[in-house]
Amino acid sequence: MKNPLAKIFKPSPRIIPEKVLAELNLHFPNAVNVEWEMKKGSFETIFYQDDVEHIAHISADGKLEEYKKNLWLKDLPRKISEECEQLGEIMNAILILKKDKQFYEVIVRDSKLKRKLFLFDGSANMVSSRKL
């Protein structure tokens, strides 16, 4: 019989390469509660820095490929906040940095409690949206 909790509680990689650890410490020197997982040949780490959750993907050769950071709503660019607030209540906002490009992912709940995910580029232009 398969273990139904295996997907939830995956074991951490046993050995994190020194290059990967160095890259994490370079970009996030104050990371705490660091957890690691292997995903598609790279290392995914979930951690907190300054009381904010982050998720980083670091290649096996020690290059930061992408990271996501939960944002306080006050830290969301004004143009994005204003556009989203016209559509409903902002539930969550995430900053995404990937290959020198910046994005914002925002979840908005409308008056009928339907949620929608919006993706904005670094210039606060809407790139896509979809229902959740």
Description:
With 132 residues, the chain is mostly beta strands. It is built from two helices and eight strands; from the N terminus they run αββββαββββ. Strands 1-2-3-4-5-6-7-8 form an eight-stranded antiparallel β-sheet. The longest helix has 10 residues, at 18-27. It is elongated.
Tag the structure with descriptive keywords.
mainly beta, 8-stranded antiparallel beta sheet, 2 helices
Question: What is the structure about, briefly put?
Answer:
The chain is mainly beta and 132 residues long.
Question: What is the fold's blueprint, element by element?
Answer:
Blueprint (H helix, E strand, L loop, with lengths): L17 H10 L4 E8 L2 E8 L2 E8 L4 E7 L7 H8 L3 E10 L2 E9 L5 E7 L4 E6 L1
Antiparallel strand pairs: 1-2, 2-3, 3-4, 4-5, 5-6, 6-7, 7-8
- The SSE order reads HEEEEHEEEE
Mean pLDDT: 91
Show unreliable segments. Answer: none
**Distance separating the two termini:** 33 Å
Q: What spatial order of strands do you see in the largest sheet? A: 1-2-3-4-5-6-7-8
